[in-house]
Amino acid sequence: MPPRTAVANEWHGRDKSLTPNSEKDFSVHTVIIRHGERVDNVWADWRSAYVDHPVDDCPLSKRGRYQAERIAQELFLFKPKAVFSSPYQRCLSTMAPAARRKSWEIKIEPGLGEVLDEHNYPPQYLIPHSIFRYYKDVPFDFDYNPVAKFFSLPAEPNLFRSERRIKRVINELMIEYGLTGMIYMAHRFTCNLIVSMYTGESVTFEPGTMAFLKCVNNKWIVDYLVQS
To answer: Record's CDD domains (predicted)?
Structure first.
């Protein structure tokens, strides 16, 4: 991993009034996004209505789809060097509106996925071919070789195992793509860990939360948060 800037212990410089639709230099940011609201958060019996759903991969709720559109608006002026997403449908569907509008190619990275505990193992997401067919109007980087391979991840009986997997993936992505200009679309635990790796801080990631990170005076900080 290349030398990383010093850990930020304070949130200096964050201006909550500024969003990506303001006049700012977005090339200096990296954005961490938690997916929108899941349908099973508001409808416990969703499976009975999704009879053609091949795996137990919960989609977005109506509010989650609205949050995805809001996130696309917030990212309108952003020009990322790379866009990474967990393969779960709730993440891909949250990233899809922005990717469509801006023609961003999403790099699907299984290493950004859920904690693989007894409730989530084996991982329930579509294989790449099915993902590309399901999201046929969304641009993907078909040549991207993920750090963590599909369906090769072991079970994670404790959070230490999950943390080790996510840190390994993020470290390798930092080496390959750098620290700035990234978009990471993931889950609550993953998002919190990425922010902590950059800044040493903790952020409460409700569904649809966006954290814009920035390096100021050799310290990575949370520049501002957006709740969609």
So the answer is: HP_PGM_like
